[in-house]
Structures are given as C-alpha cells and as structure tokens.
C-alpha cells in the first residue's frame, strides 16, 4: 500500500498549520496514521513545536524551502516513514514559495511516483486577501509579494478559501464564483478549520484524487526573489522566569503590542506566531495582518517558568524587525519576568534556486 502525500501551500497567514492539525485529527479518527512535514527558512518553528505538542509525527525541513532543498524534503518523507507506519503525509511548504508544480510536484511524480500516491496541489487563501487580489489590489503587500500570491493561485489544482466562518453565505458564493471565473481549471473549495465546514469535502478530494501538479506557470524569478526578500524573517526561542505569571495574558499582550507597533509603522505582516509552553500546557497565538486579526487558543495556565517561541514575518529590514521584537518582549515582560534567549535567527530569504525545475508535466 502506497503512502499518500498531500501538499498544502498558500501565502503566510492563510491558515495552513491550523488545517494540517485539523486534517490530521480527523484522519486519525478515521483510523489513518498521519505524518506531518513543516518547512521554513530557519529552525525554531512554532508550527513544529505546536504539532509535536498535539501528538503529531513531525519532521521539519529548515534552512531553505522544499523546492530549494528537494533532497531534504524527500529525506523528511523517509524519516517519517522510518519512525512509524503512515498512511498519509501532509506537507506544508514555506508560505512565500511558489512554482511548486514545477519544482516539487513534477519531481515527486517522476522520482517517487512508484512509492507515493501524490495528491492534487492545494493552495489556501484568506478570503479578504483573495477579494483584494481579484480586484487587482495587493492586499496590503508589496507588489512583488502579491505577485507570489497570484502565482500560487494560478498553479493550484485545488484553491481552498479558508476562514469561511467570517463570511456570509452570499458573500462566500460570490467569492467562489469569482475565483472559478479567474482560475477555471482549478477546483474551488471553501472551508473553515474553526467550525469544520468544508473539511470533509476537501479531505475527500485530496485522499482520493491522483491528478497532481496538472498546471505549470511562468514565474519571473527576479520578481519572485524580490517578493521574498521584502520580508524580514525572525525565529526566536526564549526561556521566561517569573512569579505566578499568567502566561495566556502575557501572550495576548505581547501579540497586541507587536501588532500595534507594526500597524503604526505601516509594515505589512505576513504572520506573527507565538507559542508559550509551560509544562504540559501551552497557549498559541497568531496575527495575520492588522492587530484585529489576533487569534489565541489553548491555555498555559499560571506558573514560574515557560518556554516561548516567536516567529515573525514582516515587511521590513531583518535588523529592525529583530530590534522591535526584542524591545516589545522586554517591555511586556517588565522587571518581573526575566528572559533568556535560547536560540534566535533573523534573516532575509535568499534568491530561490530550486533543485529541480521541470518545464513539462510528468504523466
């Protein structure tokens, strides 16, 4: 029996990690064994830590995207299969990556097609961002970053509109119809990881279909490189000590303060993710745009020590991003909570240089 692999792409803040967790939970209930692969330009990922805390079998490819480290990606597949028998692997590429059909889907089909059932490429998109892109806007992003979003949608086998719980049924149907008119060859779905609507339909598509990577798109790598480079990327892990600290309140206050700082600077947020882990309890929060997009779930309770991981993707110079995050952490923690940095990486992604780039569809 072949292992099935499902790739879920989409720009930063589209809801990929939440979907991975919810999909893995539902598939596990159906008796399936599921593995997860995360991906980022640097280690210390909130996504990996969160998925491990929720009991997932997780492998991480860090330091470069799947497409620029195809061997690392295939090694991650092998590592998961070596850890445990898995029926399905769900992989989440870096949110600022595109051209996945040429650089991931076609090589997978040609090199691992005998070992894997390869599902259609799903691209998630936030409804507000999709509306703005369809209107010819940039959704508050740099024009080159918006270009990446456009190319992601153009190459998708399945376009899944997320966060549909935020839309009325009429507005959702209008948005689906507009997307279908723009990308008539893609399957247009809508789903909400929050209330579960549309999840079963999407899972049915990706666990049964085999027509994967059916489109190739023309990508201007100069524009693509600029779109990635306008974002500063920060991953940092800290150990916090205090006296009976309410970790949930700290997490919320920190995210709100970061959101306000970036709003005031008019710096577009790709995403800011935060995880506070205290013993066997955790709280996870994220911002995917304006500070009003704040979402927090879970609870780390009250205690004296916790580990905190922060991932931030913001349109600004990496050094400035690093300084702002450090300042805000110090301000929110004050004199009562000490902070020790365990690991930190702040960077600007380099030019995409894929391991493989096919100019034909592998049948």
TrEMBL record:
Q: Which residues form the CobW/HypB/UreG nucleotide-binding domain?
A: 5-187
Q: Which InterPro entries match?
A: CobW/HypB/UreG_nucleotide-bd, P-loop_NTPase, Zinc-reg_GTPase_activator
Q: Which Pfam family is one of this chain's hits? A: cobW
One GO cellular component this record assigns the protein to is:
cytoplasm
Q: Which organism is it from?
A: Clostridium scatologenes
Name of the protein this chain belongs to = Cobalamin synthesis protein P47K
